[in-house]
Amino acid sequence: xxxxxxxxxxxxxxxxxxxxxxxxxxxxxxxxxxxxxxxxxxxxxxxxxxxxxxxxxxxxxxxxxxxxxxxxxxxxxxxxxxxxxxxxxxxxxxxxxxxxxxxxxxxxxxxxxxxxxxxxxxxxxxxxxxxxxxxxxxxxxxxxxxxxxxxxxxxxxxxxxxxxxxxxxxxxxxxxxxxxxxxxxxxxxxxxxxxxxxxxxxxxxxxxxxxxxxxxxxxxxxxxxxxxxxxxxxxxxxxxxxxxxxxxxxxxxxxxxxxxxxxxxxxxxxxxxxxxxxxxxxxxxxxxxxxxxxxxxxxxxxxxxx
Length: 306
Description:
This protein has helices spanning 38-48, 63-74, 141-156, 174-177, 191-198, 203-212, 252-265, 270-284, 297-303, and strands at residues 2-6, 9-15, 30-36, 53-56, 77-80, 90-96, 102-107, 131-135, 160-164, 186-190, 217-221, 227-231, 237-239. By secondary structure, the protein is an alpha/beta fold. The chain has one domain (2-15, 30-294): UDP-N-acetylmuramoyl-L-alanine:D-glutamate ligase (3-Layer(aba) Sandwich).
């Protein structure tokens, strides 16, 4: 069982849009509405590819939360909400341009005060779990403080652990992630995040700094260039991307993580998992929104050449 801790968001995403003018209407050729959020999209992708997944998150007692819950359950994700649904589900409205750059408006809703005490993230409350993944602790205030404790307890119980950095709008970066690193078997970050975490301009230097700070293995997501995989102290491996005509990159990094986790849980080796992850991230980018482009495990294996 994979246990994912992270945010659930209802997304409205449209584009391409090259500019917005007030008091006018734009008709984008691509529009997506539905499941979003780092935690929810990662959990959905992993479950869609066959992993047993439990998502610890929070959503509101509204239609958006109910739609997201049903979408997750359709893929086999078990949703755990430590507090009864109340308030408003987190919501993001966004547009993207022809190059894939995005502009987002976000309402955190129930995530503002979510997951302050989460017994379901502790080994004693999660029988059958073998892997804990924290999806962007920056987006849930309580996880900024508590993620190291949950990861430490998971390590002590023999679970595999991982964390996907995400973007920190507060700019604290290593202040939040640093205490997690000694308890991480796998750290995921994109290029910008890896540089901001370390201050290193060179990605190889950034990777080794993160490993020196405690992360056992590091995966840097490089978008259209694929990813860099540093397994232990072995030489960094560049895993090429799966080429697609990208429409919208919203959720692509989360689908990448979900694909990697699903592949590792199927006992593929890390390079094979990275190839699967690259395909998942690429397919996500072929449609507006995070999850609509995903395909079956067999088809993704074929596209990854496995």
